[in-house]
Specification:
By secondary structure, this protein is mainly β. The chain has seven helices and 97 strands. This is Neuroglian.
Length: 1270
């Protein structure tokens, strides 16, 4: 029973058709018969019975191959004629061949029938097996008939001629070699190969010049010397689409004779083979239209369809010579025209009309039908075809004879008051015309059955609000049962409820009030059945953020965003579709769906353009929203239509071939010449997009080829294919050399230079330059000239000339036709320059303006002494003790003798000198002067960085300024919040940093998850320097994590009152989770209770001091690192306050003998006196002769105290805080322990080596400066 049900379902799936059944009390119950029969009871044999129906049947044509005993390489190829049906009782099978009963047993076991099937197996096919076969499956209820199959023997006969023939051809002409293919069925496929003289296959033929027509002839569009084969032949071959063998026939030895002319001779297109003017085509079959032309150059073939366009899916093959339709459609009917052109002679055209015919096909056909007794049944067979098919009806394979109950009305068969014994049968309808037939086999089964609910409502059906839902209740019976529904035992009524024909209940626009229990009740004259189910109503899925249309340039990234919400009890899934097809991101790495459901398409291309749909889906409903992606790319290359040459102009005409979704803005017309065939130059640019025809100018004596480039907002297209060949006549040059100049490049010479003129500007043979020159300061001097025959040379040297004299110069272009038709322009040049004879004198400072500016003056030199182009003056300055590479300079115009120079180094002794210079030489320097500049504000710090320490602090570290401009006295730090483009109130960090050696501090008490702008200034006694700011963000509260175990140091400190303190220093670890602050816990060893410092006490510090301890007792200390709500304690350390390592020995000076103290005071007094004397002497050092001699010998020990930043490199370090944290221990410690090396500590004593990067100093460059001229 299950096998019978599956077969019916398969039949209904494979064959697409419709059926109309008119009944008195119900309709369409035949769809439920197989399920109903199974549920009613397998013991009811009568209910299981049905007429036969075909499951498998043969095609309309089947080929077979007969084994030839003489061919040892062939093997038998058995085949099967399929025929299988279902029915109850099980059907029996018979066959007819050519309309006569066929008995397979008479063929000596060559033909057998498969058990319980009607399929015939041909194990050894023979030629006598050809014929028209048809299968019949019968039981007591009717006869099912299969398709008629034409069994045809496949064969491929031999060539009639396989001899070798010599064919002579002239180079450049057309040639056709006939094939005379063999006969066979199906029609043999012809192809040509190249075969060696020994018979071995070398390769096939694949060339744009060679083509094979449907009759097998080989056409050469134009013959070349390469077509003449060495030790090889052209061979015509044939193969069958069914058989696995091929045959070789006519072989040709092609002998190509020279044409007797040099180069190719143009030959206009000549027709070699074209399809006939009228071509019938069958819908669904393959069709090829041919248009083969010869000529030189090779003709280009284009196709058009008159009064229409060639549809997509029609291919141009065989290098454009064939128009191929894989499956002909009705819309393909029309006139097709091919055009052959090669730029030589007239364009050739050929038109061919395609008329589409069709074998019959079903528009509507009936299916197997089950009906109740006394009902009326209507079957409709509607077929189409060209020409119109003829329709015939059959019953059990015999022509149907109408009567009072059975009538045929056009395409409909109507049976009134069907009767079980008379009308249960297999019916057939056949539609046929001259091209074939369409055949349909179906049965009518008349039944009497009580109601059955074969598909009851689901135990639980779920739906979403406002949707439509169907509660199933599929019933069966004969006659068809009447179905009613109840909800919570109340009959249903209302416009939103509808009982469908198959018994299902459809509820439109479901509401929450529709939730409840439903009952389906089925009744006919033989009884009643009911079934129940529950409906649950859920919330509807909604898209809350739909994707938006996106326009992007090719190779950029496009992002679509989408979010949705659904009923909490349902699982929500978001998917994306492209042009209604789901996207599988695993197949294309460019497409990424992120965790927030956004879809990114990277490296977009034009094919990515289309509609992208976001689909939010639950198991109950789905909703979608779409957006369009437009990927714009550069245009397709234009196609040049024609180039019309006319003297020195050419009219270029082209057509665009696609803008790739960005409109074309302009075109560029480019050309190349035979002088530079690989170099394309612009003939005209920015031709407006509407213009596709433009006249361009050409120069004489050249061969021009053109191409066109299109431009849109994305960029330039690839160029069109080169087109045209314009030759111009010779003429005189149209221009003279450009950029003529003359100047001295070495002592005693005048070098005349110009831009060489390329061959495109020569305009004829015999091109040369003629160079003219003469002195401009000598009246009446004759012109000198020299001829330069090498067009590549772009200079001429005139030697033995006086220093810096003016010359008149011109350079002319000549060829064999004469000089250029324009007069060459004259230029003034100068002979070589020399070192200036004078240096500026009386160089002096008038006024010191500020820390880097001074007003300087000097006595000017005479212009004649410069001996060259007077460019001006240069002032050089450098600070004493600086690297020589740090020399600064400023240029002064030649007409100035006083200038405000602003390039001096602040807080330094600057040495300045001045020179005069021309375009090649500088004079000797003037006298040196000393400019002592005062201290100024510093420049910005050389680096500034920070690290977030939890949610409320940032650790900052920096490097001192490269330009301190004085003695750094500290740093000022300001901070303000950043919200978008707005800044909050600026606040200053306290305590102030007044130790210049500090280069790292903690900035605390900040808001979590907030961005800050932090600014630092270096400070000198003059004031704050230039700012340097960074922007950093604190971590959010939810980003807090368990801090790593902290590390700390403990040191003894003596307070001013003499009491002992313990200094605890925390070393945060930036490589992991350091925490944002800390507090200290301590207890007397042996006790259990810890004392603690306040948890929020150390927001701005990494140091805490513990007082009130017993100096001689041992304590256990630990620190606790804090990050938000997370805390991590360190290891315990045992500490005795009086015995801590690191005790400051200076702290015990008070315990030394009084005599020692007195001696130290005396020594200090002597040192102070000596220092004061040295300072006085040094300030007078510039006045005495010893000091001047030292400066003259390059010695100068002048050095302002506290300004060693210029001489000593900054030494920062960057190391892990987990290493080198502990310092060598001593008996005591004090707060002055690290004054000698406080760069390792912050202002609060915290270690900052971790945060200070090593600063690499590059060789200083000579700075440029500014001067104000007075």
């Amino acid at each position: 029973m299950q096998r019978r049900r599956m077969a019916i379902d398969n039949e209904s799936y494979v064959v697409k058709f419709s059926i109309r059944v008119r009944i008195n009390r119900a309709v369409i119950m035949h769809l439920l018969l197989p399920i109903a029969l199974f549920l009613i009871g397998c013991n009811n044999v009568r209910a299981l019975q049905s007429p036969p129906t075909m499951l498998k049947q043969p095609p309309h044509e089947q080929l077979f191959e007969v084994f030839q005993s003489s061919d040892s390489e062939q093997t038998e190829r058995p085949f099967v004629l399929e025929c299988e049906a279902k029915g109850n009782p099980e059907p029996t099978y018979t066959w007819k061949k050519n309309g006569v009963d066929f008995s397979y047993v008479a063929y000596d076991k060559r033909i057998t029938q498969q058990p319980r099937r009607g399929s015939l197996v041909f194990t050894k096919p023979q030629a006598v097996d050809e014929g028209l076969y048809q299968c019949f499956a019968s039981n007591k209820h009717g006869v099912s008939v299969s398709n008629a199959v034409f069994l045809k023997k496949a064969e491929l006969n031999a060539f009639s001629n396989d001899e070798i023939e010599d064919i002579y051809a002239i180079e450049g002409e057309l040639l056709t070699i006939p094939c005379n293919p063999p006969t066979g069925y199906p029609k043999p496929k012809i192809f040509w190969i190249i075969q060696s003289n020994s018979g071995a296959l070398i390769n096939g033929i694949n060339s744009s010049r060679l083509s094979v027509d449907p009759e097998g002839n080989l056409h050469f569009s134009n013959v070349t010397q390469k077509d003449m084969l060495v030790d090889a032949l052209y061979a015509c071959s044939a193969t069958s689409s069914f058989k696995t063998t091929y045959r070789i026939g006519r072989r040709t030895n092609l002998i190509v004779e020279p044409s007797g002319t040099s180069g190719q001779t143009a030959l206009q297109p000549v027709k070699q083979y074209v399809s006939p003017p009228n071509i019938p085509a069958i819908k669904g079959t393959r069709l090829e239209l041919f248009c083969i032309f010869g000529g030189t150059p090779l003709p280009e073939i284009s196709w058009v369809k008159r009064k229409g366009a060639i549809r997509d899916g029609v291919h141009r093959t065989n290098y454009g010579k064939t128009l191929q339709f894989d499956k002909v459609e009705f819309g393909d009917e029309g006139v097709y025209e091919c055009t052959a052109s090669n730029g030589a002679g007239q364009i050739q055209t050929h038109a061919m009309e395609v008329v589409v015919k069709s074998v019959p096909f079903w528009i509507e056909a009936p299916n197997n039908t089950d009906a109740a007794d006394e009902e009326q049944v209507t079957f409709r067979c509607d077929a189409a075809g060209i020409p119109e098919p003829k329709l015939q009806w059959f019953k059990n394979g015999d022509p149907l004879i109408p009567n009072e109950r059975i009538s045929i009305h056009g395409k409909e068969l109507i049976i009134k008051s069907v009767q079980e014994l008379i009308d249960t049968a297999v019916y057939q309808c056949n539609a046929s015309n001259v091209y074939g037939y369409a055949f349909k086999d179906f049965y009518l089964n008349v039944l009497k059955l009580p109601p059955e609910i074969v598909d009851p409502p689901e135990k639980e059906t779920r739906a979403v609000v406002t949707s439509d839902v169907i509660l199933k209740c599929r019933v069966f019976g004969a006659p068809k049962p009447d179905v009613k529904w109840e909800k919570d035992d109340t009959p249903l009524n209302g416009a939103n409820y509808e009982v469908l024909k198959d018994g299902d209940l459809k509820i439109r626009n479901v509401l929450v009030t529709d939730q409840g229990n439903y009952k389906c009740i089925a009744t006919n004259k033989f009884g009643t059945k009911f079934a129940t189910g529950e409906l649950k109503v859920k919330g509807k899925t909604k898209i809350i953020h739909a994707p938006e249309n996106f326009e992007v340039a090719a190779r950029k990234t496009a992002v679509f965003r989408c979010n949705a919400e659904a009923d909490p009890s349902l699982d929500l899934h978001i998917q994306w579709a492209f042009n209604e097809r789901l996207i599988d991101t695993s197949h294309d790495p460019r497409i990424i769906q992120a965790s927030d459901h956004s879809l990114s398409i990277t490296t977009t291309k034009e094919l990515d353009s289309g509609v992208y749909t976001c689909i939010a889906r639950t198991e109950l409903d789905s909703v979608n929203a779409s957006a369009t992606l437009t990927v714009q790319d550069v245009p397709n290359p234009p196609r040049i239509v024609d180039v019309d040459c006319n003297g020195l102009t050419a009219m270029v005409e082209w057509t665009p071939t696609g803008d790739n979704r960005a409109p074309i803005l302009t075109y560029d017309i480019q050309y190349n010449t035979s002088f530079q065939p690989d170099n394309w130059a612009n003939a005209f640019t920015n031709v407006p997009a509407p213009d596709t025809k433009f006249k361009v100018a050409m120069s004489p004596w050249a061969n021009f080829t053109f191409r066109v480039v299109a431009k849109n907002k994305i960029g330039f297209s690839l160029p069109s294919s080169p087109y045209g060949f314009c030759s111009t006549k010779e003429d005189v040059p149209y221009k003279n050399p450009d950029n003529v100049s003359g100047r001295g490049e070495s002592p005693g010479n005048l070098m005349i230079r110009w831009t060489q003129m390329t061959p495109i500007d020569h305009n004829s043979e015999g091109f040369h330059y003629k160079v003219f020159w003469k002195r401009n300061d000598i009246s009446g001097e004759a012109w000198n000239n020299r001829v330069i025959t090498d067009w590549r040379q772009n200079y001429f040297e005139v030697t033995n000339q006086p220093i810096f004299k003016p010359y008149r110069i011109r350079v002319e272009a000549h060829n064999r036709k004469g000089p250029a038709h324009t007069t060459a322009s004259e230029v003034i040049g100068w002979s070589s320059e020399a070192k200036p004879e004078q240096s500026p004198t009386n160089f002096r400072m008038l006024e010191l303006v500020d820390h880097k500016s001074a007003l300087l003056t000097w006595d000017p030199v005479t212009p004649e002494s410069v001996r060259g182009h007077f460019e001006g003056y240069k002032i050089f300055t450098n600070a004493v003790g600086d690297n020589e590479k740090l020399i600064r300079e400023v240029k002064i115009p030649p007409n100035v003798s006083k200038a405000l120079v602003q390039i001096f180094k602040p807080n330094a002794r600057n040495i300045a000198r001045i020179v005069v210079f021309n375009s090649m030489y500088m004079s000797d320097p003037s006298n040196e002067i000393v400019v002592n500049t005062p201290e100024g504000v510093p420049g910005p710090v050389s680096s500034f960085e920070g690290i977030a320490m939890g949610a409320s602090a940032i650790y900052l570290y920096w490097a001192p300024p490269d330009e301190p401009n004085g003695k750094i006295t500290g740093y000022r730090i300001f901070y303000e919040t950043v919200e978008g483009t707005e800044l909050g109130t600026k606040q200053e960090r306290f305590p102030l940093i007044e130790d210049p050696k500090i280069n790292g501090v903690k900035l605390g008490n900040l808001k979590s998850g907030t961005k800050y702008r932090i600014t630092i200034h270096a400070v000198t006694k003059v004031g704050r320097g230039e700012p340097f700011f960074i922007e950093l963000e604190t971590k959010g509260d939810d980003a807090a994590g368990q801090p790593d175990k902290p590390v700390f140091d403990a040191n003894h400190v003596r307070a001013n009152d003499g009491s002992d303190l313990v200094k605890i220093t925390w070393y945060p670890n930036s490589s992991k989770v350091p925490g944002s602050n800390f507090y200290v816990q301590y207890r007397l060893k042996g006790t259990n209770t810890f004392l603690s410092t306040p948890r929020d006490q150390n927001q701005d510090s990494t140091v805490v001091y513990i007082s009130g301890l017993d100096s001689d007792k041992t304590y256990e200390f630990r620190i606790v690192a804090v990050d938000g709500k997370y805390e991590t304690p360190s290891e315990l350390k045992e500490i005795t306050p009086s015995g801590i390592s690191g005790m400051d020995p200076v702290g015990h000076l008070a315990n030394f003998a009084p005599w020692f103290i007195g001696m130290m005071c005396a020594i200090a007094l002597i040192i102070v006196v000596v220092v004061l004397v040295c300072i006085v002497k040094r300030n007078r050092g510039g006045k005495y002769s010893v000091h001047e001699k030292e400066i003259a010998h390059g010695k100068d020990d002048y050095e302002e105290p506290g300004f060693n930043e210029y001489n000593k490199p900054y030494r920062g370090s960057r190391q892990s805080l987990n290493s080198s944290l502990h310092h060598p221990e001593s008996d005591e410690d004090s707060m002055a322990d690290y004054e000698g090396d406080s760069s390792k500590f912050g202002e609060d004593g915290s270690f900052i080596g971790e945060y200070v990067p090593k600063k690499k100093r590059e060789d200083p460059q000579s700075p440029t400066g500014i001067a104000t001229f007075v």
